[in-house]
């Protein structure tokens, strides 16, 4: 059986359109998705992100299931005991590592952490990068 050229082209174009529009990521990452690379995120002058107002919620949603001082060694999925993100001082002490493992900017997205779902969308990773670049304010 021979398929008419015009029908084949319509199917191809329709399939491409569905692939582009039907399944597109609402928050696409930058072209070069990387991990373990400094984000070089910047702190905008109008940033309102704080630990209490934003970052603690991020850590509760994505990190504290392994990085909480309330968890014992066998409950942390291998996370070291002194890497606790429910403690602002510990977060600040490990800010460069957080940037390398979970933060993003407009050019870099680090996705090493968390190891298991749920995982933050790129927009939340960018906020983490911004908050860290601002000095991890309270």
What would a concise description of this structure say?
The chain has 138 residues and is an all-alpha fold. Helices cover 41% and strands 0% of the residues.
Could you please describe the fold and organization of this structure?
- The structure is a single chain.
- With 138 residues, the chain is mostly helical.
- It has a domain at 46-138.
- It has five helices and no strands.
- It is globular, with a radius of gyration of 20 Å.
- Mean pLDDT is 84; it is low at 1-24.
List the helices and strands and how they pair.
Blueprint: H1 5-22, H2 51-62, H3 88-93, H4 95-102, H5 122-133
List keywords for this structure.
single chain; 0% strand; 138 residues; globular; disordered N terminus; mainly alpha; 41% helix
End-to-end separation in angstroms reads 69 Å
Task: Give the averaged pLDDT, no decimals.
Answer: 84
Helix and strand sequence: HHHHH
Relative helix content: 40-55%
């Amino acid at each position: 059986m021979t398929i008419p050229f015009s029908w084949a082209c319509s199917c191809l174009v329709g399939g491409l359109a569905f692939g582009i529009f039907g399944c597109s990521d609402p928050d696409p990452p930058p072209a070069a998705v990387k991990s373990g690379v400094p984000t070089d995120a910047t702190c905008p002058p109008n940033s309102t992100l704080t630990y209490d107002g934003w970052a603690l919620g991020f850590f509760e949603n994505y990190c504290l299931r392994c990085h909480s001082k309330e968890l014992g060694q066998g409950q942390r999925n291998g996370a070291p005991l002194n890497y606790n993100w429910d403690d602002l001082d510990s977060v600040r002490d490990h800010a460069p590592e957080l940037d390398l493992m979970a933060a993003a900017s407009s050019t870099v997205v680090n996705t090493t952490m968390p190891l298991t779902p749920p995982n933050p969308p790129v927009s939340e990773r960018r906020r983490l990068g911004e908050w860290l670049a601002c000095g991890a304010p309270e």
